[in-house]
Amino acid sequence: MKPATIRDVADLAKVSVASVSRVLTGAGVVAEPTRMKVLEAVEALSYVPHSGARSLSTNRTDTVGVILPDLFGEFFSELIRGMDLAARSAGLHLIVSSSHDDASDAAAAIRSMRGRVDGLIVLSPHLDAANLAANLAGRLPVLLMNGGMNEAGRPSIVVDNHGGARVAVEHLLSLGHRHIAHIGGPKGNLEARERQEGYVEAMRAAGGQPLIVDGDFTQASGHRAMQALLAEGVRPEAVFAGNDMMAVGALLAMQDAGVRVPDDVAVVGFDDVPIAALVRPALSTMRIEIAETGRRAVERLVTLIASTSDGGSESDIREVITPRLIVRASSVGDAAALSLAAPSTGDRS
User: How many domains in the chain?
Assistant: First the structure.
């Protein structure tokens, strides 16, 4: 059977199409008898308003867009999970696209969202993220994520990567380690750069000599980096990896080489993705509550959309997330990790 149209509803209710539209969108005043006739016709015909037509009349799509540099891996899976929960709570749909960590792909993704979403979340840890989003999105409300601590004047959520890295290295220093290596993230990535700068600053403050090996935030690159370090013949006392996946790769490389963690080499990661608590030894890391950050981003965007519609502006421009050290067995051993573990409910450590 052919789906009912808005004209079918109008004919059955014996009212105008405009009256049906006003009842369904809530725009304008409609007499109560008319409203009841329209609703009865809608129910009788099982009429479902067309989302495209509704968006034209209300100027709303009830959809928000998210552009991420990648869709692969536990970090992005957790981030999307939090965003989806918040979107559903707000009665919104979520469209997710990947920029593949490329400026031209990001531009194409932003253009494709225009007219299809009420607002946009752009996560791009590159210097040009803010300008790219602002130039291409037009009047579309945009929330930036992880664009760097220096980002100012635009609604954004950023992680204190520099401060978090310092805390991670200071934890290793407090355990008596002085020869601490760093597995860095991809070149040109702001998060990787800030975490590396925090590592270097903490090392120099302690009188230590930085030792940096390149990675790209993947588990395979962490494995290769650790193999390279071990092959040099001067084994570090500890390793701070720029993210958890590289730290997991480093753990596996050390297991393959018969190196004991943390007895021979202590390891700390960054992010606290779910697998960090499941590997053995469990990974010490800097927690940033990934799913909660995704949820918060959607909530911020919903507020921004409402504020833009009302002609106002969001007062809290930049929100900073402070990472928290989670101590597990990869840095202090199983017994010490158990004694240090926080007993609070819901702690993944």
Answer: 3
Contact (Cβ atoms closer than 8 angstroms) between residue 69 and residue 100: yes
Q: Is residue 47 part of a domain?
A: yes
Report phi then psi at 37, rounded to 5: -65, -40
Residue 221 lies in a domain: yes
Q: Is the pTM of this model over 0.70?
A: yes
Q: Are strands 119-123 and 156-159 parallel, antiparallel or unpaired?
A: unpaired
Answer yes or no: do 200 and 333 share one domain. yes
Q: List, for residues 236-269, the tens digit of each pLDDT value.
A: 999 999 999 999 999 999 999 999 999 999 999 9
Q: Are residues 170 and 268 in the same domain?
A: yes
Using CA atoms, how far residue 268 sits from 9, 169, 195, in Å, is 63, 8, 13
Domain span at 118: 63-145+290-322
Claim to verify: residue 335 and residue 189 sit in the same structural domain: yes
Least confident of 77-91, 96-110, 144-158, 314-328: 144-158
